[in-house]
Fold:
Amino acid sequence: MSKLALITGAGQGLGFALTEKHLALGHEVYALAHRPTEQLTGLKQNNKLHIACCDIADTASVNAAMVGPLGRGQQLDFLYNVAGLYGAKDRVSLAETDLDAGLPMYDVNGVGLLRITKAALPLMGKGSLVVNITSESGSITNCYRSYEYMYCLSKAAANMATRLLSNELHPLGARVIAIHPGWLRTQIGGERAKDSPHAIEAAHSAENIVGIATHIDEIPPAWQFMWHDGALIPW
Structure:
């Protein structure tokens, strides 16, 4: 039986790149996207790809999208929580920050991954791996910013969710990790990433992340928060 992966945010960017990588490995993939893109549906000729609409900020939408995987009944090998929000308007001081407008970002980035993982719990078991795509911006130890309040709070929440899930799923023999994918040349990376030498392509990040995921037994259990290349990040 081929391995099974569930990927959110699969319509574009990193989620799409992860979908491509797992299909290339011959894995079965459930690709969840807020709005399935032509890019994603263009892979539909692969009979191992299953596409579903999913808004991770809406529990009913999550439950509807999970009907397929749950009905299949096969244990998940990989769950990638990729879907997220970023707003360039958040790159301002607290005095200029619209806290109420930033709440959807917190809901999606911080709570959305819990909605998906909660729905997928019946498919978790020994050897299952949950990969939460968070950010170095959620590191309290390494915090250098004096802006992006809501984004950083949302990613710190995602990191805490990672630790809590790791504690809960450990008795099942499942693992949970958080990965910073790098500054990506994608829509969420923004205009500044397009020409920056510090940014990377989503495909490059995805290749590294899949390398970690498919060799997770070689990663020490205490390593839970890391860059896409495996370098550790302090919480």
About this structure: Helices lie at 13-24, 38-41, 59-65, 67-72, 103-120, 149-169, 191-194, 202-214. Strands lie at 4-7, 28-33, 49-53, 78-81, 129-133, 175-180, 225-227.
